[in-house]
Amino acid sequence: MDYLIKKEFVKKEEYFEQNAEFQKKFKQGIVNYKDYYEFTIQYLKNKSDDYISGIRSEFMKEIIEPSINIYALRLIHKHYEDNEELLLASGTTSIIAGPIAKRLEFKNVVCTKCEQKNNIYTGRIEDPPSLGEGKLQNVQVWMRNNGFKDFKGTTFYSDSILDMPLLEKVEKPVAVNPDDDLFKVSKKLGWEIIDLPI
Question: What is the pTM (predicted TM-score) of this model?
Answer without folding.
Answer: 0.89
